[in-house]
Structure formats: structure tokens, C-alpha cells
Amino acid sequence: MPAKLINLEIDGRIFQAEEGMTILEVARREGIHIPTLCHHDALEPVGSCRLCLVEITHRDWKGWRGLVTSCLYPVEEGLQVTTFNEDIRHARRTVLDLLLARCPNSTVIQKLAAEYGVLATSYAKNETDTNCILCGLCVRVCAVKGCNAISTAGRGVERVISIPFDEPPPDCIGCASCAHICPTGVIEFEDADGVRRIWGRSFPMVRCPSCGQPVMPEAQLEFEAAKSGLDPDYLRTCPACSQKKTVDTIRTTFELKAVEVAG
Amino acid sequence: MEKVLTITPSRCTACRTCELACSFKHSRNGTPGIARIRAFMFGEGRNQVVTCFQCDEAACVKVCPVSALSRNEQTGAIEVNELRCIGCGLCAVACPFGHMNQDRVNHLAIKCDLCGGEPACAAFCPTRALEFK
Q1: Contact: B50, A145; criterion CB under 8 Å
Q2: B1 pLDDT more than 70
Q3: Fewer Cβ within 10 Å of end Cβ, chain B: N or C?
Q4: What are the residue ranges of helices labelled H in B1-133?
């Protein structure tokens, strides 16, 4: 059954959307910019960065209007959305001011804050040296991969991204997806001498049988092969060597064919 | 029946125009490193271009943890949803033919998407070694 279509207004223009879509999804589809830090299309939205705030109202709401996180708010019939005005700018400024107080050294936050005119934070600077904005992308991507090796711990100002009992996480497969997705580049990993070091663990890498380049951690290979049902050998060869092998196969096939034709 | 990108090695001169056309089409910069098609020279005038086979049962689709790869039913090509891609690079490793790659700058998967039904490589191939028919 096709999804029910809904009409809504964004910045004075009427758009059609399917029931269940969020305001952010519709806006992005239509090329309307809404800043985000904690959003990723592949992951469940959580609304933790509060940057995607937009103003909503409805003609039946008797003039009531309010700010909502567009990544979480589902579209509804007759909704009127404003993606930028003075109130929104003020709210985003406060958010960025607070983020800058938390991570004064993060270039990503500095740049975004400067776009909203926040050149220095008006709050007391965080003294612990962290660039983590607690967006939770790393935790969510780890869950989507099926590992759940990391999570958030503590509440309020003590909230941190953490590994269980602060010991090297047994469920980690060393895929480094958390490091790749982190918007402020906090999560560190190191690939050296065929070993990947991340979250306090060392993962020996599988080496490509043809060229010897490290391809992925052995733990990840086992995990991915079991999850996808693919032949583990598919995951051992690096892309460049796989391509070379394909080309060689095609070439030898043609050469044999040429010999046959000539012969 | 949907059109197919055909490759005729006997007409290929490995001039690499396809690589450039591909790169310009997908990123507006002429970096053959991110081209979805690759030309190989074996010497003695024998050349070969290779690109994604758009497999029916594709390993890349199977391993993607976030379902960022899906088939476009109109063109028959498997396409990357760049907004969903988390850049883990698993698809590139899983492809048994090595026809997938990873953009080193943006950490996104890159593969042939048949340019949405009008492949630039075929349009620019001077010797018609690549045809879309």
C-alpha cells in the first residue's frame, strides 16, 4: 500500500511528503538547508545536538508556535515550518555557545559557531580537554553494525562515551566505524605494522594474500562473514588485487579464445 | 529490456577518456583515481576496460550494514546512497571483482551507477569500445 501523502508548508512553499517522514527529511529532499551535527541518514535520529531546531505552527493552533527538533518531528497535514528566523538563530546561537564552552578546541564547532556569530563562548570553558559533543553517532553506528561495544555512561555533566567498566571492550571488532563517523574526530585509532589499535585493544589485521597490504582486522572478517553469509575469502583480498585478478582472468580468456580461433 | 553497458576490448585503445569522463561526471574534477571505470594496457595493442558488472546477487549489497546500496529498477544499476553510507569500506573489500572503491577524501563508497541511465564513459569513448545499448 503506498504511504499516505501529506501537504505541508516549509518557508512559505507547499511540499508533499509521505506520512512518517520527518521535517528534516523533507527539507533536505527539497534542498533546504538545516544545520545538524548528530544526524545521519542511516541511523535513528535522537535529537541530541539541538542544532536542527525549526519553528512550527498550524492554522488550527490559534497562533501557537514553538521550536522543535526537525530530525525527530514527523510531518503532519497543514504544518507550517519556518527553518530560519530571529528566534531560531538565537536558539542555535545558544546551542553553539554551549558546545563551544564544552569543546573550545574543536575546529568543527569553532567554524559552525562563527557562522552564527559566536567567536568566543560566553560561558566558562570546559577544562577537561575533549572535543566530544556527545552526539552519540559512534554509539548508534556501533549498534547498527551489530556490535554494541560502546555506549554512553553517566548523566548530566558527567555523561561520557564509554566502554564497559573502562576496560577494552570484548564486543569490539576493530572496524573503526565509530572513528570515521565522529563529526569532531575524537575517537582515535592507529594502523601500524599490520595491527589496528582502538579503544585500548590491538587487532591483528588480515593481509591481502596477493600484495600483503592490511585489509581489515581478523575479528571483523569473522564477524562480517558470519553476518552476511559471504565466503570469508571474498573479504581477504584488497580491492586493487581483486580488480587485477578480474582483468587477468578476462585477458587470459581472450588469449585462449584467440589461440582457438587462430589454431 | 534495460540497456547494458557493453565493452568491446578489440576497439579499446586505453586512452583513458572514460576514466576522465567518469571522474568529471561524478565529482567535477578530473581525478582518474576516483573514476568508477578503469583502463588497463597489456602491451602489443591489447587493452581492456573494466567497470562494475551490476551483479544480480551482489556481494556489496549483502555486506552493507546500513543498506546504503540498492538497485535502481529503472537503470538496473546498483547505486550508493551517499547520505546513508557510513564509509566503512566493507563493500569495496567484499566485491570479488574489485570494481568498488572508496573515496579517500570523503570516506564514501564509489561505484558505477551508469550515470542514472546515460553513462558518460560511453558517450565520450572515441572508438566506441564502450557502448550503452
Answers
A1: no
A2: no
A3: N
A4: 17-27, 59-63, 90-94, 120-124
